[in-house]
Amino acid sequence: MASGINHDRASMKWSVPFGLCINLIIGSPYGLIAGVTFCLGGLWLSPDLDTCSEALKKWGFLKLIWFPYRKLIPHRSLFSHGPLIGTTIRIIYLNICLALLVAIATYLRIIPEIQLHIYLLESINNNPKLFITILLSLEASAWLHLIKDGDPLPNEFLSWWHKYK
Ligand SMILES: [Zn+2]
What we know:
The chain is mainly α. It has one domain (4-160). It is built from nine helices and no strands. It has helices spanning 4-25, 30-44, 54-57, 67-72, 78-81, 85-107, 116-126, 128-149, 155-164. It is globular, with a radius of gyration of 17 Å. The two termini are 27 Å apart. The site of zinc ion has 6 residues, from helix 8.
């Protein structure tokens, strides 16, 4: 299992070739977006947000939003370190936190009322390639993390696989 610093270094190092590959496949500016998202995903949306980690420290005072996540998701479980599942749960969790913050800010009249889900759906409809690039890059950075951890599939998945195979 790699340390937090090793994960950070790998995320930064592999973001460049990943971005170049996406640039070759999809073109510009998606390669740049993929490289930056890959790096940010590895540094800030790491599977290790389920424990006190380097990724968690980077959130500063906002790391408080990850407290319920850390309490609900056991460290290195299928729900944080599972392929596809981990990234999906973190993105959904972050969107719930964002929706709550917007709702509070709207209630306190700090910002005008906005329909966040409608804005999000319109944004996806207007540029699906951008959202696919972002999601793919976040998942790829999670895969790098899982590979660096040494066991890409968490134990729960492996025991389930052996049971039903
Ligand atoms: Zn990990």
